[in-house]
Structures are given as C-alpha cells and as structure tokens.
Design goal:
Largest sheet: 6 strands, antiparallel
InterPro entries: Cro/C1-type_HTH, Lambda_DNA-bd_dom_sf, MLTR_LBD
Strand order of the largest sheet: 2-1-6-5-4-3
Protein name: Helix-turn-helix domain-containing protein
CATH architecture of the largest domain: 2-Layer Sandwich
Strand content: 5-15%
Shape: elongated
Distance between the termini: 57 Å
Number of helices: 13
Order of helices and strands: HHHHHHEEHHHEHHEEHEH
Radius of gyration: 21 Å
Pfam family, one: MLTR_LBD
Length: 257
Amino acid sequence: MSTRAAPIGDHLRAWRQRRRMSQMDLALEAEISTRHLSCLETGRAMPSRGMVLRLAEQLEVPLRERNLWLAAAGYAPAYPERPIGDPAMAPARAAVEAVLAAHAPNPALAVDRHWNLVSANATVAALIRGADAALLAPPVNVLRLVLHPGGLAPRVGDLGTLKGHLLSRLARQATVSGDAALAELLRELRAYPAPPGGAEEPEALALPFRLRVGEDEMSFLTTTMVFGTAHEVALSELTVETFFPLDDATREALRRL
C-alpha cells in the first residue's frame, strides 16, 4: 500500500499549533494576512519557496524539517543533509574535535539530535569506564548511559536532581522538535529508578553535579554549546557538552586521569 506525503498546509498547521501560536500571531510575525495564511494551511493556496522558508523561520522549525516542508511544497531542499561522517563534513568534524581536545583535561563530548555520542575527549573515556558493556556499544546514548542503573547512575551524587534536569531538557526538545524518537527515549528514561527529589525542573543554563570515579568524588558544572548559525542539517543538530571542575580536588583528579 502506498503512502502519500503530507501536504505543506498540514506541516504548517501542525508546527503552528506546536508553537501554540494562533493564525493571527503567525501572520503578524511573517507579515502576511491571516486570510492568506489560512489559505496556505487549507491548501487553497500554495506558498512560494521564499514563503516556506519565511514561515519556517518564524516557527523556529529545525533545518531537517524545513527540507520536508520544501519537498511538500514541490521545491528542492535548501539545506544539505550529509551525515557527520561524510568526507565533505571533514572541516566541521575537525572543528568539533578541536573544541573537545582544547577542553582537556576537563571532560567534553558531542552528541547528535538523539543524544547519541558523536565524539568525546580522552577524559570522558576514563569517567565512563566500568559501565555495562551493552551501554557502551555503539551507538552510545549519553542520557541512557548516565541514568541507567548499569551506567553512571550509581556513582552520581544528587541523581534525582540530575535526572530531573535532564528529563526536563529532553521533554522540551521532544516538544519543540516533534521527534518521536526523543519522545520514546523520554518514556524509557522516566521509568529508570532515581532517589526522591527527581521532579522535572525548569531548564537551567548550567547544572552542578557530582560523580564518583574510583576513590575521587568529582564536582562539575555542565554547560552546553550549539552551532546556532549552521546551515548543514547534521551540524545544526550537534550539541557539545562541556564540564568544568568546581573545586581544586576535582582539578587535581582530572590531571591524574
């Protein structure tokens, strides 16, 4: 049985509703009439290529989804969808590797849109040593590795707080992106055990957490970097997670690692 791709109007309406915007709100932002927007959503009018991109920009639609919009409207994709391992992506990979290496001896890693590990510096390998082999088999999902009882969870201080922060962040990503894989990952991680105090909290810019490594109790502050001006789909979906030591004991332990 064949399936028909959703028309552009369906994409537009779904994303407008996901952003909780009325037709009037979006029409004002895009500087078009509410009537014209209604016609686009119902299929009584077809948008130009520029209009597709303008509306996608106002709705903060991810680049991967913008290509789907363009295809639904009968246009060619605007953003290359090459995997990060493609030879053409070598300069981008080199830039990411340089960032990770420069952060050593502090831990740093890069993840894709589904939180699968793309790359990490050598310190990360030392921190995750001892986790279940199944969790370390590619593709390594970083959230699963951190929160699973067979991963880092038994060694994480304030696990409930960390879990609440990570799930809050993942829930927002799943809602904003409409990605079914993220929604499924969220359901899985919510089922993992955690101490009391694990309520999902509003997302913070940075989060302190503690991790036991051997005889050392390390304290970190985590921060996140994204490539906000990227025009490659894979690069736009890449996130670099960096960790900074919060005390001298952690700095010394990282130097030993």
